[in-house]
Amino acid sequence: MTTGNARLADQARGELARALLSYKRSFIHIGVFSGVINILMLAPALYMLQVYDRVLTSNNTMTLLMLSLMVIMMYALLGALEWVRSLVVLRLSTGFDRTLAPRVYDAAFSANLKSGKLNAAQPLEDLQQLRQFATGQSLFALFDAPWFPVYLLVMFMFHPLLGCFALAGTVILMFVGWLNERMTRPHLQQAGFLAMTSRRDASANLRNAEVIAGMGMLAHLRQRWATQHLGYVREQNLASARMSAIQGWNKGLRLTIQSLALGVGAWLVLQHEMTAGMMIAGSILLGRALAPIDQLIGASRQWSSVKEAEKRLSQLLAEFPPLETGMDFPCPAGALNVESLTAAPPTQTQPVLRGIDFTLPAGETLVIIGSSGAGKSSLARCLVNAWSPLRGCVRLDDAPMTQWRSEALGARIGYLPQDVQLFAGSVAENIARFGDMDDSRVMDAAQMAGVHELILQLPEGYQTLLGENGMGLSGGQRQRVALARALYDRPRLVVLDEPNANLDQAGDAMLAQVIARIKQAQITCVVVTHKPDILKQADKLMVLHSGTQADFGPTAEVMQRIQRGNAPAQQVSAVRPPHLNSRVTPLNRTGSADFTQRREGA
Ligand SMILES: Nc1ncnc2c1ncn2[C@@H]1O[C@H](COP(=O)(O)OP(=O)(O)OP(=O)(O)O)[C@@H](O)[C@H]1O
User: Fold this and answer.
1) Per-residue pLDDT tens for 537-575?
2) Which residue's CA is the closest to the ligand 1 atom numbered 5?
3) Which residue lies with its CA nearest to atom 2 of ligand 1?
4) Do 489 and 563 fall within a single domain?
């Protein structure tokens, strides 16, 4: 890791620690409660001591009664304090989650936007693991363990030999715990990693159930998953086998130490160096002193997986600092200015777009054409600020998109991606982008997208619930609902990436009407398409070829250049997407007839 990365990771670690420290008051309360609880925990041993050494020797029933009343009151107080302490921890746990979960959610979103490969749920699972560890039993153990010397001191006060024996026993048990952690850690780490990857692959693959069923891929995918899963089970078993061997020894050792403590006490009683009460009380105290040590050993077993989760989370938070707040510029007219734009996919440095430079006045419609892989969708992503430029700038009116607050910008933009994605929720919620629901605006968008009647025919109309990724609608219906979502609240710029990819002829005609409505509403519109029909409505036409702007200008002029054969060879081929050849007029010598002839005929 470079020094810069290490610094970022430290900062992110600091972010996690800061979130915990913002609950300093709760920790202080837990510490105080733990202190009182631990002092009260001396009560059973002291009660036993008093009963053996004072009551039984003096035959004093009154003393017994008073002692019993006192100890009952102490137990009641102890119970109440334990209850209050757990309530404070519960509040701490909820607060910790509330502080960090939205931040982790945003970071997971940014990571997915960048690479698209992350198991989006993993960071939230990591946070949950961290929260459970930091606010669970291990927290109590951490606060109780410092009281161990107090118990030890009391035992030393009973007799130095008893104290030494308890100290030695504790050291041995801690050593065995450490050995256990050391011998199982690599296997648990490996098992955790394999479990994570096999879970991620299984859920990603099973989501594509129809493809799996349609092409009989289940056996192969199962085999692939089983290899990972069996690896996880093997590592887990290895760790468990070692753990149970050591735990068995540990249990035996613990019983031996406790029994021998009683034995040492009895021997000291026989030597008249201690009373019988001290012998019994000493044994109880040892049991009490070892409890938090046991809990700490248990926590150390979870430690390696918690550390892994913390490392993953710190890396994620370091890589994706809180989203910049940006500015809320006034509502733009919608003019699009692209200046010397060079851009690459977020994970890469090799540009797929170079030197794109054009201006589109507000309210105009631009159509982008080009062969497959020319960079049309990449440009569409840049125009909605989903990809940031490597060089150059995309401005909405005068303000660079990167300077906008992303939510404010998003509200002014409509985007229909090539790969339409709807979310689980009602049709209306999807159209309203899951924001505040305004029925009139939802219906306005649906009417503008020409999908209002279609939605009314769905079983529950606008309230029809869709599954993940718009399950329940056909491909064409999904595309049209997504078009309505792009037009929700009449944005100032609409970018449609192949809006007619899933539409039939009637759908194409409907789309022409939609674009006419968009123009009428003075909304700036950019349409990426392979189909020539939309050219009729375009004010400007751009031809992309191999990531560069082969031509741009008023539609008629660009078409003329293509017709005259002025266009360079690569430009011409860009206007002729191979899959159109069967549907359109055959190409002339320059290869430009498909678009031009249709336009002339229009
Ligand atoms: N997320 C990505 N990661 C890596 N490379 C990408 C990514 N998106 C696009 N590319 C690359 O960028 C280039 C342009 O792709 P783009 O999808 O923009 O082309 P297109 O013109 O829209 O193609 P089509 O008409 O087939 O949709 C291609 O070489 C593609 O491999």
Assistant:
1) 899 999 999 999 999 999 999 988 887 765 544 444 444
2) 345
3) 345
4) no
